[in-house]
Fold this sequence. Notes:
Elements (H helix, E strand, L loop, with lengths): L2 H5 L10 H27 L4 H7 L9 H10 L3 H16 L11 H10 L5 H10 L5 H6 L16 H5 L4
Amino acid sequence: MYVINVLQANYNLEELNEESLTYVNRLLGERYKQWKSDLHHHFQTFDDPQVALCEGCPQELEGREDSWAWLCGHFQEGGYLKAAEANKGNRNKKTLLHHSGSRPFSYRMDARRREGSKFPEIDVFGDVYVRPGNELAESLYPVGSSGVRLPTSSRYSARVCGSST
């Protein structure tokens, strides 16, 4: 069921176009996913699932203990545990860790363009993923005299650097 269907009980959404409805649905879906993740982290603070069920109901679910009971059961289901373990493994495999916070990439790109960057995409990549002092990242994206970070071995680097080959 879409979140929009629940919202229509309290809000007039009839005049929103399809693109806006899709955006609202995606945004609320992401917020729900984060909220559920926060509740799972709260659940994990307890050593015993039974203690979490009896004593761990968060304030935001007071009066809705049935929802907390369902979540406690959900967090112990085999399918959920399997997916959580797979996700944890995938996060550990990441080689590029994002460290830019919540500021949208489009804002960063606009700022780089205003600064006169010839390659704002590459500069933003360096800003967001390359940490100062990381030897591996700096070797892959060296800073040239222009301040632009370019990949040293990429099928596109020759074109970016102006080579005719």
